[in-house]
Amino acid sequence: MSEETTPWSEKYRPSSMNQVVGNTEAMNELRDWVISWKRAPQKVKAILLLGPPGVGKTSAVIALCKDLNAELVEFNASDKRNKGVIETEVWTAVTQQTLDGRMRVVLLDEIDGLSGTSDRGGAGAILKVIADSVHPVVMTANDPESPRLKEIIKYCRVLTIRPIELQDMISVLKRIAHLNEAEIPDNVLEEVAEHSSGDLRAAISDLEAIAIGGLSLGVGGLSSRDVRRGIRETLSRLFMATNPIVAKRALSEADVDEEEMILWLEENMNLHLTTRSEQNRGYEALSLADLALGRIRRRQSWRLLAYIHDFISMGIVVGRSETPFRRIDYSEPSWPLLAWRGARRTDKIMEPLTKLSRIAGVSRRRAARVYYDAIEQTVARDPKSGEFFARWLGVSRGLLGSKASRR
Questions:
Q1: 114 Cβ partners below 8 Å, 6+ apart?
Q2: Phi, psi (5° rounding) for residue 137?
Q3: Using CB atoms within 10 A of its CB, is residue 353 exposed (0-12), middle (13-18) or buried (19+)?
Q4: d(CA 195, CA 365)
Q5: So what's the pLDDT on residue 388?
Q6: What are the structural domain ranges in the chain?
Q7: How confident is the model over 122-172, as pLDDT tens digits?
Q8: How far apart are CA 281 and CA 65, in angstroms?
Q9: CA-CA to 2 of 20 to 30 Å: which in 9, 218, 307, 348?
Q10: Exposed, middle or buried: residue 338 (CB in 10 Å: 0-12, 13-18, 19+)?
Q11: How many CB atoms lie within 10 A of CB 184?
Q12: For 216-246, how does the pLDDT look when each residue is reduced to its tens digit (9 = 90+)?
């Protein structure tokens, strides 16, 4: 494949560990472990790099071998990796010394991809490979829930490789755009990075598509990626954003409801907005969001939900005008706030719980766990059913489905 036709995601694959972005601690641990094999074989003979696609697992191993002038023997997803192949070809690679005396690193890519009849027994064969190896064995996997990993994990060191941070991704995209003399505005690069959901390989491919297809293609012309993010990643992306649209997207992808989001922001906003003027703007916006949430709770005016995202995103983006973004460890909301939140919801649903417990002849705790949760899920799927359940129990419509209907 010529240089001109090589996909950018492959063309700009890191050639040294210095070019690998993100997951610094895990990458340092990987490098130190491989280097330790130069002194003597290690007790732990395998490392598993566990993380989603496109975050640099395979690229890091390739770059590390180039840095150490080590021989890389790779068995990737395109190989037929059934039990027979692993017991012969892979086993030979891990048990025989190199002809030139160099270090050898054996890479088993995407071992959670071993599936189907042709791969029956593959996991057991990998365990034998690990036990007999005289070389460092590095494995990668995407799915932490894969049953194929259940036994393998017990015999290797597991390094969790997380999605690439937005700021790191943008820096890589800027460098690649500059190398190709592609004039891509910063806001487009930010949207490309945000759109990729932490997958750097996908972001580079999207950048190539925009550079070739023109800015008129835009991020809207790229394939969609549905993702739900944890609260800490959401906060990081939210405070990193310089564009309100990107900030709103971070909020919409949060796997947490608006009430809990406000509590987390109240606890951690001062870590990013450090000056008095920044805090004034930020907390003013947060208070407006909380007021809107209160009206939603009292009046069931769910059309106000969009304003909550507007208040928060504008407050953060406009508020952080002086303090530079930095990566920090976010604290959970302090216990008085959590206790207040829990008591607030408990008080609100106490009346329907009491009536449910009487009808079913069970305790309120069991009524909550079995019946009320089922009603919430039903109302979430069919909001009109809330009126039926409210009449049946003789309670206000606002007391049913409040949690589910916010999702």
A1: 81, 122, 123, 148
A2: -110, 125
A3: buried
A4: 42
A5: 84
A6: 8-160, 164-227, 229-333, 343-406
A7: 778 888 889 989 999 999 988 777 777 888 888 899 999 988 888 888 999
A8: 50
A9: 218
A10: middle
A11: 18
A12: 545 555 545 555 567 887 888 788 877 777 7
For 223, 235, 321, the CA distances from 272, given in Å and listed in that order, are: 33, 10, 10
pLDDT tens digits along 384-407: 787 888 888 777 666 565 443 333
Tokens of 168: 């790191």
Secondary structure of residue 131 in the 3-state scheme: helix
The domain covering 8-160 belongs, at the CATH homologous superfamily level, to P-loop containing nucleotide triphosphate hydrolases (3.40.50.300)
- Tokens 């930020």 locate to 282
Residue 157: strand, helix, or coil: strand
pLDDT of residue 116 exceeding 60, the answer is no
Q: How many residues does the chain have?
A: 407
Sequence letter at residue 188: V
Tell me the C-alpha distance between 90 and 92, whole Å. Answer: 5
What spatial distance separates the first Cα and last Cα of the chain, rounded to whole Å? 48
Per-residue pLDDT band at 215 (split at 50, 70, 90) = low
pLDDT of residue 216: 52
Q: How large is the C-alpha radius of gyration of the chain?
A: 26
Pick the residue with more confidence: 305 or 40? 40
Q: What are the backbone angles phi and psi of residue 2, rounded to the nearest 5°?
A: -75, 165
CATH architecture of the domain 164-227 equals Orthogonal Bundle (1.10)
Is residue 118 within 8 Å of 82, Cβ to Cβ?
yes
Tell me the C-alpha distance between 250 and 244, whole Å: 10
Mean pLDDT of 261-288: 88
